């Protein structure tokens, strides 16, 4: 049975509870390490050597159509990931938790574990805010989102 994937931002503010008035559930950094990121299906990606280029088709909403009268807008938005970002992206497979991604990067690049965890959380927050990755929904009965 496939779990639904939530493609809403899980940003650093929500992770660390910086905005208590936010309607999002605040999660602790330790809880964030147990999340399992998965790539969004609308993201196309190609490998160029050690780097990866992510590509997303532009959504044509009302504002975009209005702006296109005045500006030439690209059909796609691209993101260039370096070798470290590419290594993290490859591990966003829907099976590897954030904690394991941090361990892999720490081992591969010789980083201390704490630095790897902080860097991975920040990078995944960036990808999540741009809806490039999502996190499988947890058990609906548990009340977690």
List the helices and strands and how they pair.
Layout lengths: L4 E2 L5 H5 L12 H4 L5 E2 L4 E5 L2 E7 L4 H6 L8 E6 L1 H9 L6 H12 L3 H17 L3 E4 L9
Antiparallel strand pairs: 1-6, 2-6, 3-4, 4-5
Helix pairs in contact: 4-5, 5-6
Task: Give short descriptive properties of this protein.
145 residues, alpha+beta, Outer Surface Protein A, domain 3, 3-stranded antiparallel sheet, 6 helices, globular, disordered C terminus
Please give a structural write-up.
With about 140 residues, the protein is an alpha+beta fold. The protein has one domain: Outer Surface Protein A, domain 3. It is built from 6 helices and 6 strands; from the N terminus they run E-H-H-E-E-E-H-E-H-H-H-E. A 3-stranded antiparallel beta sheet has the order 1-6-2, covered by helices on one side. Strand 3 and strand 4 form a beta hairpin. Helix 4 packs antiparallel against helix 5. The longest helix is centred in the C-terminal third of the chain and has 17 residues. The two termini are about 20 Å apart. The C terminus is likely disordered.
Structure summary:
With 145 residues, the chain is an alpha+beta fold.
């Amino acid at each position: 049975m496939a779990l639904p994937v939530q493609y809403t931002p899980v940003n650093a503010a929500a992770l660390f509870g910086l905005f208590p008035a936010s309607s999002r559930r605040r999660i602790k950094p330790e809880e964030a390490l147990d999340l399992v990121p998965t790539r969004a299906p609308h993201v196309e990606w190609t490998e160029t050597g050690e780097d990866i280029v992510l590509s997303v088709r532009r959504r044509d909403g009302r504002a975009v159509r209005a702006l296109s009268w005045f500006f030439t807008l690209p059909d796609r938005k691209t993101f260039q990931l370096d070798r470290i970002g590419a290594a993290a992206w490859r591990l966003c497979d829907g099976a590897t938790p954030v904690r394991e991604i941090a361990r892999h990067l720490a081992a591969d690049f010789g980083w201390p574990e704490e630095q790897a965890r902080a860097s991975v959380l920040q990078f995944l927050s960036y990808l999540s805010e741009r809806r490039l990755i999502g996190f499988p929904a947890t058990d609906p009965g548990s009340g977690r989102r």
